[in-house]
Amino acid sequence: xxxxxxLTTYVFGVILALILIAKALTMWTDFxxxxxxxxxxxxxxxxxxxxxxxxxxGVLFFAWLWANLRFARKPLPDNxxxxxxxxxxxxxxxxxxxxxxxxxxxxxxxxxxMAGLVASGKWLQWLQYTHAVDFGxxxxxxxxxxxxxxxxxxxxxxxFRSVFYAVVIAAIxxxxxxxxxxxxxxxxxxxxxxxxxRYHILGLVSLALLVKVWGYRLGQLALLVGDRGQVLxxxxxxxxxGRIPMAYGLMALCLMAAIVIVANARSRKLFVPAGALAxxxxxxxxxxxxxPTLLQKLVVQPTELQKERxxxxxxxxxxxxxxxxxxxxxELHRVDGVLTWEDVQKxxxxxxxxxxxxxxxxxxxxxxxxxxxxxxxxxxxxxxxYTINGRVRQVMLSPRQVDSAKIPGTETWVKTNLQYTHGxxxxxxxxxxxxKGSSDEGLPNFWVKNIPPESVPGMEIDQPRIYYYTSIxxxxxxxxxxxxxxxxxxDREQPQTPSDDSTGQPPQTPDRPGAAAQRIMDEPxxxxxxxxxxxxxxxxxxxxxxxxxxxxxxxxxYDGRGGVPVGGLMRRIAFAARFQDWKLLFTQSLTRDSRxxxxxxxxxxxxxxxxxxxICDPDPYITIQKGRLEWIIDAYTYSRMYPYSKPxxxxxxxxxxxxxxxxxxxxxxxxxxxxxDRDDPMVQCYQRIFPNLFKKEPMPEKMRDHLRxxxxxxxxxxxxxxxxxxxxxxxxxxxxxxxxxxxxxxASEPRPTEAYYAVMxxxxxxxxxxxxxxxxxxKGREDRNMVAWMAARCDGDHYGQLLCYKMQAGLxxxxxxxxxxxxxxxxxxxxxxxxxxxxxSNIIRGNLLVIPIANDxxxxxxxxxxxxxxxxxxxxxxxxxxxxxxxxxxxxDLDDALANLFGKTTQEVAxxxxxxxPAATTEGEAAPPVSAATPPAAVVDLLNQAITLQSEKQKALxxxxxxxxQTLDRQQSELIEKAREAAE
Length: 984
Prior knowledge:
Helix content is 44%, strand content 18%. By secondary structure, the protein is α+β, with helices and mostly antiparallel strands. Among the domains are: 60-222, no CATH class; 225-300, no CATH class; 333-345 and 713-912, no CATH class; 355-466, no CATH class; 937-983. Helix 1 (3-36) runs antiparallel to helix 2 (40-72), helix 4 crosses helix 5 and helix 14 crosses helix 15. The chain is flat, with a radius of gyration of 35 Å.
């Protein structure tokens, strides 16, 4: 070996050693982090499984490949004579022989290492396979429990591919070695081989065919998973009557071909073995793909509904089960009444909790008036409910977090990592209150504000510091990154669609479900892990305050359970290597009591603790519990392997459950996992794998009071239910009653309606409760009438119950876009919109809320303006509307808008809703009479209804509907008579 080659080897060895050392140090810091949270068992379980799988598979692959290569390397017997041209001259052969055995050994070692690395990545599939749980639902085709597909099929597919590729690689490399050894020679159009070489290679080919039999069987089972670009998911008619029989035929053909090849191994002629292999390939390519395609076109398509009916039923049943939609309570919501002022008064708590503040403008407003320091930021605003003065009130909260990019002055490592370590407090305001009559008019009325926090009774904060926070990145990016971590780093196994050489199914088209999301996931994402060190010689800044004319800093010293103790030199080196930040090693500010806080964003923290087997909701929400700030995070179990279930187009899963709620203190950062759905087989499997991860004691009552059904899961379920509420196969096939989530206007652009939380009284219930809801319209007619609305209950024992209220057929119920249009056409609204736009302000139309009250619907839309100079959104108008009769009321707040809608004064609305006491009168003095110029509200309401019927009468007359005209005329006369009686 030359000097330069030795030097290259040494340099390569040093680089490899440094990489391995850095990897080992990072793993050690991971172990310390898991241990600091009491979850070292999770780390050791995953690590030991990866090591065992990697070593076992790597050693087996190496031993198998090396044994075959050594067998092929045996020298030829002396009595063998082959004709034909030699592969290499003697001089070249002598040079190659010096390195041949070493090269083959290195090749086998590299192959074993690669196989071991791939196997170590299958740790989750192996643990699922060995801890599988039955679902209690069997597939209708093969009679296997759904748990087989969810927990076992993916690992079996990996095992098949590993064995098959091992045999194929051994056969190819052994053939090459035999050619080099000249045990196989090509003479013209014929191949000559020694008996040993012939037995060896044909034996491997026969073994590959036998293994392929197993692959065809797994391919049959895989037909039940995924939709492969089809309308239906799971096996279809052409699968059952085409691909599955063809797979059985190919299995028999492979078995016979293997026998024929072995039986003819003695023959020097390879025509028969080659012919047997060619027949298998030809049948798999032509018959596997051609026959099912012809079956689909000639038999299925002419009578598709009749042929596919049973498979549509399987798809409907499985999809509803997989998305937990098989227990949706469906009821009829009769929207056949007229919403009156009395109805509103009877639902006072519902009206008190109508959300007027949209999270987007409110977030901007909080940033402007409650950040208070340039380095603070409000990343997101969430809705929750609190009991204030004995009443349940909806409240919007957002944490005041440190944004390291906004830390003032010259950026230094000490500032970003040692001093500005935490956020401080929250801003919170009721969903429906605005300030009036001051310079703050149009801004929210904060119930928690300022630094240090000032709170109303019931929302006091004793520990306002936020060391663990939510991400500042957009929610969609968070979700994509969360799923991408599962796709690219762990659970990579997609439902394996049989290829053309198995059952003949063509590859998936680019437009398969999840393809768009997958393309986004495939883009590189740079993640810089933020960290801070606490309990150092530096003071951790809480806030600054003015004492006289002097600005004074208020500091804190961390005394929580979070983080990993820095300890001695070795730990410093390990963390410096992890972050590639050597200031951590050389700074003089650290002590042995200092603690390193890592994985500080809550979603990433949960994802790091539960890698790849749970999806963490990207939108955690902060709560105030017993004076402390606590994060509540929704964690989902999921699968892509549930048989016959339809994959969701955006997140590419076909089974999902919100079985786990996680509580994480914003100061300590130690997550606690509570199982809320113990019937979920997936969480049962993970409880077997990680028995100490999940809390065994019941959830604290204070946490239970703040549980809310996750909007992400609810939206996914609503999108699936929009089609899969159709349980009849014919209706489903023809899409006769397919629904859609309608659009609404935000600012001035249409966008899908977001699921929204509300405190309201559900039809037929006695009291108000906290729910999540969405409206539905007919698919393809999103701008038309509403056909249903869906709700998820969040309180007490009803948590997680899904309800769907359908409108009666044939009744026109205004959808969101119809109401948006009506508001936009209102003369007063149009005039104010024009006026505000001329003053250099941007008009922001907020979420349109549909609030069911009595036998009607109340529509509410807030309108904000944001000056181009200040960009602080202010709530300047509230629009309310009803559909029967078609009315719109505008006002500066909800009370004013309701007064306009029902012909009341604002004072009367406030009194009727209990916001103020009725005006007092002096004893013996009569209350002032109603002005003759102001008719009673009941009279105005009845006359408005009569006026509305006039246009309907004219329409009926123009269409020649005399019966309808007479009915409307009679109703109008009755309303006028009632108005006269009310006036008297």
